[in-house]
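Re-run with default settings, no changes from the original entry. Doing this only to confirm the output is reproducible before filing.
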Amino acid sequence: MSGHTGEVEGIRFGRMAPTVTVSDMPAAIQFYTAVFGFEKTFENGNPVGFVILEKDQAELHLTLSANHKGTTQNVAHLLVSDASALYAVCERKNVRIIKRLRDADYGLRGFVFADPDGNRVDVGQPI
């Protein structure tokens, strides 16, 4: 793989947004908007099968698959300015916490939560 990096030199990469599969689109939209303050900026399909949610610089794409079940893998990593404050919000709103708030030796304070489908998101703040 190395040795091919010259091929992309000079090409500026823009944002890259994760696509998270959900089994219940209205429940997922409600979760990410009510708990985290995301806003729906795009939807497609009837019934809606794809949604874009945005907050500040974060963008999350949701795609519908009726039989989806979350796994033990993280599906996204979200950098925030205050992980402790967001953790407190998650506790108040009864969000399922997978890994409790901690300071990791790699320089991030963070935690992992699960959405209603069990999709895991790793939250981090540089310390």
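The chain has one domain: 16-65+74-126. The radius of gyration is 16 Å.
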